[in-house]
Design goal:
Layout (H helix, E strand, L loop, with lengths): L4 H5 L11 E4 L2 E4 L4 E2 L1 E5 L11 H14 L3 E4 L9 H9 L3 E5 L13 E2 L1 H14 L5 E8 L11 H17 L7 E6 L7 H5 L12 E5 L14 H8 L6 E6 L11 H5 L8 E6 L12 E2 L13 E2 L2 E2 L5 E2 L3 H11 L41 E2 L21 H4 L16 H11 L1
Parallel strand pairs: 4-5, 4-12, 5-6, 6-8, 8-9, 9-10, 10-11, 11-12
Antiparallel strand pairs: 1-2, 2-3, 7-17, 13-16, 14-15
Helix pairs in contact: 2-3, 4-5
């Protein structure tokens, strides 16, 4: 954890309240050599930064510990704010953080992508602000940049961001903080996107982990009927850790979280590193596990009130969802494998996928654009490099389950497109 100024002035020795985590092969390991499985919740109380109110973090961390949480995902932070208090509170509770580096004005655009110095500087500032915290598990270069199956030409720009942020991390002498991506679950792009972001044999460019935001499993369901069997088939021996960076369908409700049995069970546990449930706070999308009080007037304004919901105070479990998840996680204790007994060479580097009729547009081993490039301006073209390799011809297995991966809001008149746009700007 980051030393306080007082501790540093007093000359106290550095202490480690919580083991750090690294990515090796397709698994996460703690610095003590044990495999780490994510039991997480999405945590974004306010749009700007939920990690600056130490008292609120303390209240939430206490209840998260009761729930069984060991990881939170935060979509937006202010790199200039003070985070020592919240990060220590979560570390003391045994909770790691996964943080998105993009900001509201720096994320990579899906239709007219570019990657420039301004974006790199913005992302780097987030890394600078959090790198010293031992409970920083990983950093995302993007969340659902590709939201439609005809936007896959942006994939090389995601790889550019991974390359440059990892190079920056190493140039600063930071520990090997895993850098990865969180993807929309689009059937027509599976598994081509995850394969492209890890193909080509250049670890300095490839992502260190891959998260998928999938809402296929809607209770009651099963491993076979939910579509998870297909996700597992495409994740076998994946070269980097893969996990659910969002999950938790609320249709029809209440949530039973039976998908957790599959994720941490014998069908998937050898290839998957856990799941982040969406989300901690109850708001308009109705996915919350807790609330800070009854809904407010949607037009109300004031401290800690936004978009019709109170966003601070004493967290109250939303039942039965909270209890269902707590009981589920308490009964699930995967042991994994010790780092000393693990051979990362057993996982398989993917071939770079060729383009498909259903929407995957990047053909082969397309090199990531250089810093300053923009798609369609002559500074970048999506031609494969000479070292490109072909992927197998797509089959029905890869086109598979077409269930919506998006968070669905029941009894709301707005269509799915409007919902997607709302979340894109919120997250």
């Amino acid at each position: 954890m980051r030393l306080s100024l007082f501790t540093a002035l007093c000359g106290a020795a550095t202490t480690y309240a919580i083991p750090t985590i690294e990515a090796l092969g397709n698994k996460f390991f703690t610095s003590e050599g044990q495999q780490f499985f994510i039991k997480g919740v999405a945590y974004q109380l306010v749009p700007e930064d939920p990690l600056i109110d130490t008292d609120q973090c303390r209240r939430d961390a206490s209840l998260m510990k009761e729930l069984g949480v060991n990881t939170i995902r935060v979509y937006h932070v202010d790199p200039d704010a003070e985070h020592d208090g919240c990060m220590k509170v979560f570390a003391d509770a045994g909770i790691y953080t996964m943080i998105d580096m993009d900001t509201f004005n720096s994320y990579i655009l899906p239709d007219t992508p570019y990657w420039n110095q301004t974006q790199l500087d913005a992302y780097s500032r987030v890394m600078d602000a959090f790198h010293d915290y031992d409970n920083l598990l990983g950093l995302f270069v993007g969340n659902e940049i590709i939201a439609l199956n005809n936007q896959s030409n942006v994939a090389p720009f995601i790889k550019s961001a991974s390359r440059d942020l990892k190079a920056y991390r190493d140039s600063k002498g930071y520990r090997k903080i895993p850098v990865g991506y969180s993807a929309t679950d689009i059937a027509e792009l599976r598994p081509w996107l995850q394969d492209y972001l890890t193909c080509g044999g250049n670890a300095s460019e490839n992502i260190d982990f891959y998260g998928i935001n999938s809402y296929q499993w809607c209770d009651p369901s099963t491993y076979s009927t939910s579509g998870y069997a297909q996700l597992q088939e495409q994740a076998k021996n994946f070269p980097v850790p893969i996990f659910f960076s969002e999950t938790g369908c609320i249709i029809p409700g209440p949530r039973l979280f039976d998908d957790q049995d599959a994720i941490f069970g014998p069908e998937m546990v050898k290839d998957w590193s856990g799941a982040i449930v969406y989300e901690w706070i109850q708001e308009q999308n109705l996915y919350g596990l807790i609330s800070y009080g009854p809904p407010a007037d949607p037009t109300a304004t004031g401290k800690n009130v936004f978009d019709g919901f109170t966003r601070a105070g004493t967290p109250t479990p939303k039942l039965p969802d909270f209890t269902n998840l707590s009981k589920k996680w308490a009964a699930i204790t995967p042991t994994g494998v010790a780092k000393s007994a693990y051979d990362p060479d057993t996982v398989s580097t993917r071939a770079c996928p060729t383009s498909t009729p259903d929407g995957w547009l990047v053909d082969g081993n397309v090199a990531p654009p250089t810093l300053g490039a923009t798609l369609g301006t002559g500074t970048f073209t999506s031609a494969a490099s000479a070292t490109g390799t072909d992927a197998p011809t797509p089959t029905d297995e890869h086109e598979g389950n077409n269930a919506s991966s998006r968070r669905q809001v029941p009894n709301v008149a707005a269509g799915l497109t409007g919902i997607m746009m709302m979340f894109s700007f919120w997250l």
